[in-house]
Amino acid sequence: MIITWSDILSIGHDTIDREHKYILDTVTRLYLIEVDNKSKDESVMLFGEMIDLIVSHFHNEEAVMRINRYPNTDHHIELHSELFSRLTDILYLLETGSDRVAHELVQCIDDWAHLHILVQDRMIVDYLEANHL
Ligand SMILES: [Fe+2]
Ligand SMILES: [Fe+2]
Q: Cα(80) to centroid of ligand 1, in Å?
């Protein structure tokens, strides 16, 4: 089952939390369409919506890091690129009619929630708080 938004995933930054929630809500909708084997067109459309939200979120988060001179910014941006290329691979699976889309999406979003949001993104907020920014 795909991870859904809950307060456990909140890192204490209103804008970032809200964007994470929108993304996870969209991923959940996409996952449900995939497991129900509904329409491929709908999946591709929703995948595009999810990618747009993620690109815009990365952009905003990277701006927060740069403006506040977060020391780990370059590494964090690399992690965003890695996640993006993983999603591109999943989009390819979707477009080629693979039955592994739901499985790969679960893995990818689980890693993103537990390893990225709760570790890397939280480090940004810890830095902002520690430096009264
Ligand atoms: Fe991030
Ligand atoms: Fe994030």
A: 6
